[in-house]
Amino acid sequence: MPSKPSLRVGLAGLGAVGLEVARRLIAGVPGLALAAVATRDEAKARRALPELGAIPIKPAPALAEDCDVVVECLPPALFREVAVSAIDKGRIFMPLSVAQLLDNWDLVARAKEKGARILPPTGALLGLDAVRAAAEGTIHSVTMITRKPPAGLEGAPYLVARNMSVAGIKEPLKVFDGSAREGARGFPANVNVAAALSLAGIGPDRTRLEIWADPTITRNTHRIEVDADVARFSMTIEGVPSANPRTGRIVPLSTIAALRALVAELKVGS
Fold first, then answer.
1. 158 with 175: CB under 8 angstroms?
2. Confidence (pTM)
3. Would you call 140 a catalytic residue per the annotation?
């Protein structure tokens, strides 16, 4: 029997996450092929990733022209343009800036109309399978407590708007306590995990979020607590930060796992 053609992946963004995803796709993942990338500085990209070779570098909105899957690893301000281009072409859109979906919710209806799919990877969280399963029943509450080294939070819009700085703090400081929607707006580069959790469970307005700047830790720590009619559970993950302290080294691996699940003969988990 002839083998199926590989799924063509377009990668929008070659930052700390995008570079690692690109390296792994180029090294070889059965059933997947890196077809094109988008970056603002082609020369820098080719220096950082000589393995790109003949893989074309295109503007981000052009990736959807000949890629089956568009993976978004961009600054939040560039999210919508690449999302719309992928969705309007009926592609699979895999956003890493999951928090941006909350303020671009019309994209979900647009995907339904165009025959596209929006598939955020799990990212730096865990337990989304359990939360999705619990959501088939009744979830009473979901709380997420995020602790990050101060460098990973410094400069967040929420802090800037309040003239707050966490540089040089000596003890853990709670900098936010509110809904996942509010947290996603105030910390768009930090809490994509909270947005993903809220979408898997009871929504961004009912999901509670605490954010702490903690100089006593070196890992990005997320604890989720869920109370549902079928189960009560809590989980904690301590992720090693990547070269970009706002994100973890597990994020590109989660992206590869999500891509692999699109073509694998066996997929474990819901």
1. yes
2. 0.91
3. no
